[in-house]
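W.,

You were right to be curious about this one. When I first looked at the sequence I had no strong expectations either way, so I just let the prediction run and decided to look at it fresh. Below is the sequence, 340 residues in total, followed by the output.
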Amino acid sequence: MMPRYADTVVTSKLGVNFVKTAVDAAGCIFHRIDQENDLGIDAIIELVKDGVPLNKQFAVQIKSGPSFHIAQSNKCQIPIGNHFNYWSNYPLPVYGIVFIPFLNTANWVNIKDYLKRSGQSTTIKFDRTKVNVFDNQDFASIFLPGILNETPKLSFEEAKSLLKSTHLSETYLGLLVLFRTAPNTLETWDLFIEFFRARRQSEIPFGLIYYLAHIPWHPDIWYHGEGITADTKAHARKLFQGFDKRDIAKLLSFIDEETGISRGSIGQSVEAIISSLSNRDRLLLEVTDDNGLPMSSREYAALIYAYHNHQAAMPLLRRLSEQGSWYAGELHSYLKETDG
């Protein structure tokens, strides 16, 4: 009987070679770890840019074959086994890469981040998206820029397509690229406002609120790159004027109850956007008078209204206090004292 070369070995090598090819094509270095020394890491990848080593490395665990792909849910899976502590405490970032031979593509996951979020899981499961593809093109255009804290190399149309996705990671990448690469393309702001108004609060990345706040600005916005021109701001402000009560309530729902409207919080960006509206007071009053909205949103609407209209806010705060708002009662007492 002749010896056989196991199919699993062939499949495993296909995955390793696929990853190595993508790394080599980007001019980076793939350091393979011999199988006899493999404790849960298959290779170390060293980053090189324009021929110059960046002194940055990360480790990869590569899985290959249909058993690591859940076709029904379009997910990938990597068994953890006894590697939880090893991966969690590894001195380099650790990424898992699943190669799917019949699709001739691979997808990646940040293993350390996953383990921090999920705790003592037995299996790493993650969605296959356009954001976590690992191939020649996406390794260079998305994966590497992400590791190096650079802007992914996507066209306007590619970013626009991602923004229209229903997957949060894809919409976030689309928003990021559009804002960083096309802040003075008026269509960018049309897309941002359309996205904000059409999506539910849970489908909107917090980053969008911060980007919108660049139009009115506030002291804690730190932005480096292409400055937003006066014409662009005028265009975006005109779009803001189309906001209605529903939009204001959605903005207010982003405010974290622990940080409120403090400096550096998302609430600060929400307040800056709302305060810039010409019809601000009317919309805030509509929100505070709507018993169908959460009390927290009505309280923040009252707070912003009171900031601009001390005396006129007193009856409003009193009504909210009578409806059970401790916060409105405290604010009413404070304004009564300070205004004499």
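Here's what jumped out at me. DSSP finds 15 helices and eight strands in the chain. And, maybe more interesting for your project: The chain has a mean pLDDT of 93.

Coffee later to discuss?

I.
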